[in-house]
Amino acid sequence: MSFVKTMVDSAQRRGKGSKNELPTSSSEIEPMEDSTQIVCALRDPELTKNTDYVKAVLGSYIKVKKSHGRPVEAISKKLEPLEEEYPRLADSFIAIRKEHGLPSSNILEPPAKVKLSERVAERRHLHRKGAGAEQGKV
């Protein structure tokens, strides 16, 4: 029996009824001990259309890691390979990081790189502008 089927069956036993009524909080999800379980839980594209379900799966994983005493930086690093594998779920990853107080993702939110490239472009523009002004004076 697949892991996802087990989760859906578990949800039905708790009164969630159908596949459309999936568990939507990490307390309703089986504990996610490792990333392999997350991959199994997120492999069905129909299930991953439900952002609450995705966040519940990720939240369960984070809660397990925190219960084992893992620092938030280590948990954050553990999420990054999953973020690379599931870029279409970026909004869920970003939201769950904020909910659990994890640092921003180096995969999904590289603000320093973006800002640096913007500053470089701005300097080049100003440099060219300054060079053009000097040429016009002579």
Brief sketch in words of this structure:
With 138 residues, the protein is mainly α. The chain folds into 2 domains: 3-107, no CATH class; 108-138.
Question: Could you please describe the fold and organization of this structure?
Answer:
Residues 1-34 are annotated as: Disordered. Residues 21-34 have a biased composition (Polar residues). This protein is mainly alpha-helical and 138 residues long. The chain has helices at residues 3-13, 35-41, 51-67, 72-85, 90-99, 111-137. The chain has 2 domains: 3-107, no CATH class; 108-138. The longest helix is centred in the last third of the chain and has 27 residues, at 111-137. The protein starts with a helix and ends with a helix.
The percent range for helix content is 55-70%
Main pleated sheet = none
Distance between the termini: 80 Å
Nearest-angstrom radius of gyration?
22 Å
Beta-strand residue fraction: under 5%
- Number of E-state strands: 0
Secondary-structure-based class equals mainly alpha
**Which series of helices and strands comes N to C?**
HHHHHH
Mean pLDDT over all positions: 79
Number of helices: 6
Task: Give the low-pLDDT segments.
Answer: 12-17
Overall, the morphology is elongated
Region (Disordered): 1-34
Biased composition (Polar residues): 21-34
Please give the structural blueprint.
Elements: H1 3-13, H2 35-41, H3 51-67, H4 72-85, H5 90-99, H6 111-137
Helix pairs in contact: 3-5
